[in-house]
Amino acid sequence: MEQKFRGNTPKTQIYYQQSVMRFINYAGGYREVGSVGIPLLREYYVQLTQEGLSSNSTQTYLRALRTFLSYCFEQGYVENDLSSKFKLPKAKRMELDVLSDAEVQRLLDGFDLRRELHLRNYCICALMIDSGLRMNEVVTLRCSKLKLAEGYAIVDGKGNKQRAVPLGRNTRRALGEYLNRRPASSSAFVFLMPSREPITINAVKQMFQALKGSRGIPRLHAHLLRHTFATRFLENGGDMYTLQQILGHTSLEMVKRYVHTNHQKMIPRFSKFSPLDNLACE
Known about the structure:
The protein is built from 15 helices and three strands. It has a three-stranded antiparallel β-sheet. The chain is mainly α and 282 residues long. It has helices spanning 2-5, 10-26, 38-50, 55-74, 82-85, 101-109, 116-131, 135-139, 169-181, 201-215, 222-235, 240-247, 252-255, 263-273, 275-281; strands at residues 146-147, 152-156, 162-166. The model has no long low-confidence stretch (mean pLDDT 84). Helix 2 (10-26) packs across helix 4 (55-74), helix 7 runs antiparallel to helix 9 (169-181) and helix 7 (116-131) packs across helix 11 (222-235). It has two domains: 2-85, DNA polymerase, domain 1 (Orthogonal Bundle); 101-263, hpI Integrase, Chain A.
């Protein structure tokens, strides 16, 4: 109920429910929250690691549990704030996978933009690669929130938080063409099914499933495009604070994951920033 009150998506609500239930099952069923202590939480952590879960997956389960314990303390159900005493173990930082420039080109070049369905799918991919939108943000994007002339869109992010997201020239051009082709009064939402119903999450997943084979990119999925956007944004000179606003992250720590520029792009640019090289040029 608390997650619904906060406006979190059904997916987020299920995440918290399943994570807390996993701990309840480990603890032997429902019990008084006040009977939970640090020793039991540490034992649960050890159990998760012994199940062969990755450090990131383990941290995901524990983060949800800490949120629940913090809520119980804030509501006065328990006297001790266990969430502040039970620190999360550091997850191993994994280098995020991104699409190469050649793969991005191959993905986009495969669309026949003369066909409405292909143009729609091109726009979906462009919004993810060029502006970092999540899949759910693409699906729920409304025509009234597209400001093509001004160069941005208002998207509904996690927790129903709205934010302005800049749009590139090519993306704006493609979106304008798509909106001109589809019936203007058919839906308040931008992206439609052939039936003229709003597109669904499942339909977008099926689209990417088909693109995996047709583009020869087996690891292709929606979030890979968002990772690609964030990484290329930083590589092209964007700053982390702006990226944080565009992605809709509440913490800068989430954005720091994308600071993993590869050597091929980092080393040639170093002379531009080298203190001694620049001193010698003065």
